[in-house]
Amino acid sequence: MTTITRPTLDFDHLSDHYRRNWVRTAAELHARPEPIAWTEHHGGYWVVGSWDAVNRIGQDWETFTSFNDVEGTGNGGRGQSIPPNAYRLDLGESDPPLHTERRRLEVPFFTPKALRRWRPVARKYAIEALNDVIESGTCDLVRDVIIPTTARTTLYVTGYGGDDWEDTVAVAHRSMLPPDHADFPMQELGRMRQSFRDHLTQRRAQPNGDLISALATGTVQERELTLDEGESMMNALVFGGFDTTTATIVSALLLLDEHPEHRERLVADERFRKNFVEEVLRLCPPPAGMARTAVRDVELLGQRIGKGESVFMWLAAANRDPRTFPDPDTFDPERANAGDHVAFSTGHHRCLGSPLAKAEVADFLDLVCRVLPELSIDRDSIVQEPAQGGENGYQHMRVTFRPGKPLDLEK
Amino acid sequence: MTKIVYTAHDGGSTTVEAQPGNSVMETATRNGVPGITGECGGVLSCATCHVFVDDEDLEKLPPVSDLEDEMLDGAAVDREPNSRLSCQIKASEDLETLRVRTPEYQE
User: Is residue B106 part of a domain?
Assistant: First the structure.
């Protein structure tokens, strides 16, 4: 049945109001007959909070395009962000079959076998960072330990090299500001993208088996991947991985702090630890959501979505859809279907780094529980990212713990 | 309907009637069959729905695509000649029965 007037909602996922109130807004949307509404912000878009419908949108790429038609010569899609990115993310903002061929160059680096190479590296970076602070009994856990671990791991996995991770982090944080913001790192970002191109050119001449080489020598649709495509894919890999993983680690530590009864089992029981991480991701997904553009008229949850209209897959709300997750606001690390969350999106664009991210979070929790006894979080010290793209991010979190001796990297 | 017999690494087996169009992976995860993770939901991106297909059933299946072939190289347990990713095998009217063995672990 199609309704005549659109249900509306005053919703802007980029606003401070959103960040302060999104859990309540999601519950209110779910209390409606159907969790779908139209908002007038950013030129107008549909907000969809239904877990079922979000999955349908993510999987039906022929109706809901991810393409970002920057040149205005294609299907009119506006990509995965609202408002649209001026810089097209060639992997995320394309559709099959081209998307599948581009992604095919990257997926071998995120398989279960590949993870066996990356996990010890992430652990090594975590221990190196912890060893700098472990004797003092206090640190800024985000700045001193978590960001160095996740950033260096991401850079190592891409083959970009971990030496200038501090610059990369600085650019990553500020590049999520609106491009007209005074602190937007226009020049630094330009330099980094040039550096991606230089790396790609170098690897094209001398491939060494890393991910950059796979992009530099890869073919899609029977042609070489262009330098523009390679740069854009490098950009997504380098900047996509560590703020999101950092946010998930912080969310996990905060939830553990609120539920110390799980601590012992978290260390002893690997299966429980994995489900704990899934439940953290369900409740605290790093992104608020992802956008699509309808390329034809389509009916969704009783509403007529018009051709050309933007649709926001509100992933954070879908993760709290009471029809899929009973008692959705309760943290239950034993929840049987916790892993059905859509924190990594759904369909062809589901985050390909998700297995690595989950392993990093689980391993870091295990390590911290083992080596930082009496960990106490100073909640007043927590500094979140400014409202940047609806992304859940953290800059600072001070902690104290019982001082210990530096850890042996070999053990 | 396709009758799918899943045999676990330890020998225990589960039989499920699959609806045409549903994959061997989703039939397992929706029915609580152990041994198949299906992390990515069926978009050939995770290699956690690896199965070994009974040799007699192998020739009934459509061929392995290039991407499936590449992903099988990354599966947690080493591939064998009868390895497939179960998200790529769909139940159909033509496929009466299918026997698969799940590996010891997927991740």
Answer: no
CATH number at residue B24: 3.10.20.30
At A7-54, the pLDDT tens digits run: 999 999 999 899 889 999 999 999 999 999 999 999 999 999 999 999
The CA-atom distances, in angstroms, between B106 and each of A70, A108, A290, B3, B78 are 40, 15, 29, 23, 10
Q: Tell me: the pLDDT tens digits for A110-126?
A: 999 999 999 999 999 99
Other beta carbons within 10 angstroms of residue A384's beta carbon come to 16
| Contact yes or no for B45 and A347 at CB 8 A | no
In this predicted complex, what is the ipTM?
0.94
Q: Compute the nearest-CA separation of B41 from chain A (Å).
A: 7
Name the pLDDT band for A1 (thresholds 50, 70, 90): low
| Among candidate residues A300, A254, A305, the one with its CA nearest the CA of residue A280 | A254
Beta bridge partners of A391: A287, A388
The answer to whether the bond into A97 is cis (omega within 30° of 0) is yes
For residue B74, the enclosing domain spans 2-101
- Give the total number of structural domains in chain B: 1
pTM of the predicted model as reported, rounded to 2 decimal places: 0.95
Min Cα–Cα distance to chain B from A403, Å: 35
Closest of B106, B32, B70 to residue A355, by C-alpha: B106
Nearest to B43 among A111, A348, A355 (CB): A348
**Cis? peptide before A83, omega within 30° of 0:** yes
Element (H, E) at B4: strand B2-7
HSE-up of A49 (CA within 13 Å, CB side)?
28
Residue B26 located in a structural domain: yes
